[in-house]
Specification:
The complex is a heterotetramer of chains A (106), B (101), C (304) and D (90).
Chain B (H helix, E strand, L loop, with lengths): L2 H22 L3 H23 L9 H32 L3 H6 L1
Chain C lengths: L3 H19 L3 H21 L3 H21 L12 H24 L8 H6 L1 H4 L4 H9 L1 H23 L13 H24 L7 H17 L11 H23 L12 H22 L13
Helix pairs in contact in C: 1-2, 2-3, 3-10, 7-8, 8-11, 8-12, 9-10, 10-12, 11-12
Chain D lengths: L2 H23 L3 H23 L7 H22 L10
Helix pairs in contact in D: 1-2, 2-3
The chains are: A mainly alpha (106), B mainly alpha (101), C mainly alpha (304), D mainly alpha (90).
Chain lengths: 106, 101, 304, 90
Amino acid sequence: MTPRTVISAALLILGGAFFLAGTLGLLRFPDVYSRLHALTKADNLGLGFVAVGLSIEAASFALSVKVFIVWASVVLASGISSQLIAGAAFRAGVAPAGKAPPGEAP
Amino acid sequence: MPPWLAYAASGVSLFAVGMSALVLHGEVMRKILAANVSASGVFLVLVALARRAPKGPPDPVPHALVLTGIVVSVSATALALALVRQLRHGAQLGPSDERRR
Amino acid sequence: MIPPIDLLLATALPLIAWRVLATDELPTSVVLFIAFGLLSALAWARLDAPDVALVEAAVGTGLTGALLMSSLRSMERPRPPSPWRARAIALVAAAIAVALASVVALLPRGALGLGPAVLARSEESGVAQPVTAVLMNFRGHDTHLEMLVLLAASIGVLSIQHGTASHGVDTAPTSSVVMMLVELIVPALVVLAGYLVWRGSRAPGGAFQAGAILAGGAVLLLLTRRMAPLSLERQMVRMFLFAGPVLFFLVAAVPLGFGGDMLEYPRGWGGSLILGLESALTLSIATILTMFFPQGAPAPRRRG
Amino acid sequence: MNELHAGLAVFLLLNVLVGLVRVARGPTFADRMLVAQLFGTTGVTVLLVLGADPGRSALRDVALVFAMLAAIAVVAFVQLVPMGGQDRDR
């Protein structure tokens, strides 16, 4: 076991842990807004750690660039789409947990 | 049981699930989804059969068939959906539809 | 011994398909169907069919989802089937499944199929990637006829929609966030499609994958009203639509005049001819797939 | 396939399958789209992990296609699907 394989294995496992956190948030959080928050953040970080882990493992520049492009597109797309989903839910009058629906008197 | 056989069995079950839903449900949208599921089952069986050799590259001919098959099945789906929209446009469905507007 | 991931995928696929079809609410079915497409892409990946996985990724995540959502308003009321009928049908389906599965299980194990034959002659095809060689050379006539099927379907969709043009998509007003996404992602999709065509001669990729990706970008533009609806009245649209099939026809027919066989590529020209043909097919496939999407209200007619 | 990769891929796939519970529970269509989002990110990660296998490097291109097209379903959802209340009263 070289230090490189240890580091990359640690990063892969850490990435997996973030995905677990995201899934738990998706299942346990009370409303669509908090679920959105938990899921997108945790999963993008999880993907980031896995991507770095795989790049360190393979130690190839071309590969790292491709993996980075994949990660960047996911972060961009999921950041924007989570904003869109939240906006659509809010306009449709979905109430945040413990609050009155938007646009109605409390 | 080799992995390809598991996928082939999965494909056969997909085909059966899709076919029974196609016969069972009256809604046209659901029939379209069911036909798509059946098609996926057929594709899965074909690609699984291409992987029968224990090592070496898989058979490229079924891959080519499935690849174009996916695109053709999207076109069939699109044609069916266009017909559904036209059907609705002609029928101007009742109150359930008004509510969504 | 089956690796756990294969067991998981093979079991999950029929279960999700069953949920897709049994769920009461259609929007839920549509989301589950998108998820189903993703899992099938993983199955293609595990079965060493990256070409198929690419098409599934492009078609399943982009086009099919958008198409289904564009038709969600056409929902009918659910009509729950009677339970005894459901049971009878399930029984028949199970019997058919068992019969089919036993046929599949009886097929010779370890068969190589046509793989060795394709590999042995890949030198002559002009391309090193076996799936591209099959599509564009060995079974070129199949691919040509498939293009004609696609063309026929797109003309069908267009003529059906003709009467209901005003009932195509009525999209919500576009927010600046969506615009930003579209501006960033559409140019990237064009580059990605070009990369896949260029790579198609040596590695997984090609006209069908690239065409589906371009169509995904075009659907984004249609959804945000950045692109005028495609109509046959626009010359550009007609050119793109027919470029692939017409070029394919010429490539097929010209050798006949010189005493060759139909679709016989001149020696040494296979590679370049296939690349040119693939580029034209990419444009045609992208245009056809985009036409499948409801085009919305027709743009005011412009002349000249 | 190295064991850590195999384990990670199975673990991520299980995450996706457990996430399907949220599709069933809803309650709003936005919740369901959120799960489609989860599928996208997790699916990309699984493909990258599978693509690290020698001889399967083409799967990274599949991951790239997924990553770039994942947004289309969400944009289609926002632009096309009327959410107006029909989910709220369930």
